[in-house]
Amino acid sequence: AEKFEPARIEPYFNRTKIMFFNKDYQQCMAYPDTVVTLEVKENEQNDLKLAAQMYEMAADSAFELEEYDSAAEAYEQALMYDDQLIECYRDLTISYARLGKIDQAEKTLQLARDAGLLVDRLELMQGEIYSAKSDAKSAYESFVKTADMTEDDYIRFRAILVCDKTMLADTENVKENADKMITFLEKQKDLVSADYESIVKEMLANEYTLADQFDNAAKIYEELMTEGTLNYTMKKNYFNLLFVKIRDYDECSKLLYSMKRQNPDDYWVYMNSAYLLISRENAKADQTQRDYSKANEEYKLAEEKYKTFTLNGKSDANMDNLRNAIKELKSYGWIKEG
């Protein structure tokens, strides 16, 4: 590693900063180790602080990449160079919790308390520890407290996000947890900034679905569509709700049309278009009026697009099921060969 010299540390710091703000996380997390040595301790106080901030950015990068071992190591390094960087205790604790190192997480939480870290951060950290212990009830209480007390929008969103993941992981209490999350998210969707609003609304729509409140879930998706924030993944979730739960085939058709225009190479759209057309024909009481030819055309397009998807070793059981459905229709003469 290159040795840090007082005259040279700032350019290294600036380079790290550029990597971090450009979201070049892979390079940023590794960079400080290529230029920092323990001899930096002999440098001026300002150099120590810059070295600490470099490691903090490296740690944050590793955290974003969910490489929690590397994140924990870098946060420790940052605190070694500057023990006043007490915000590092937050994601250091959370890194340990997500690694299942509960004892270390609890010790670091106590260090953060002793150092005077803000109480909303401490409550968030406590919630993560409960979550790592699979104590969904206690985690929920901590995350709700965090969101209610904080004035930091990022901390609020972190609490909402991990609370939702924790409650979804508690599969023994799905309905009860969904009801709790609906109450929580209904309040928080009006408090988060515009950066996070659509994500929180999507969580709410999912919780409504789990609670069998399908019309309320649809209203949220409609809001997102009106606001122009319904992204492609959300559209897939909305389609599944409309198709499987609500059975609104007209709205399904409109949604698939917009998705084809948005991403004409996605096999998923053609696959579900085929499923939709089959369902429409099956619903006709007069069997002489049934015509599955369009469904077969969409199926063929899905198969063509699916080839690209499977190149990476991926597969989709829904395509297998559709393939079998088409074969069955052919065997009964509903679809003519050729």
What is the fold's blueprint, element by element?
Blueprint: H1 9-21, H2 25-35, H3 45-64, H4 68-81, H5 88-98, H6 102-115, H7 119-132, H8 136-149, H9 153-169, H10 174-188, H11 194-210, H12 214-227, H13 232-246, H14 249-262, H15 267-282, H16 293-310, H17 317-331
What's this entry about, in short?
The chain is mainly alpha-helical. The chain contains 17 helices and no strands.
How would you portray this structure in words?
The protein has 338 residues and is mainly α. It contains 17 helices and no strands. The protein has helices at 9-21, 25-35, 45-64, 68-81, 88-98, 102-115, 119-132, 136-149, 153-169, 174-188, 194-210, 214-227, 232-246, 249-262, 267-282, 293-310, 317-331. Helix 4 (68-81) packs antiparallel against helix 5 (88-98). It is elongated, with a radius of gyration of 26 Å. It starts with 8 loop residues before the first helix and ends in a 7-residue tail after the last helix. The mean pLDDT is 94.
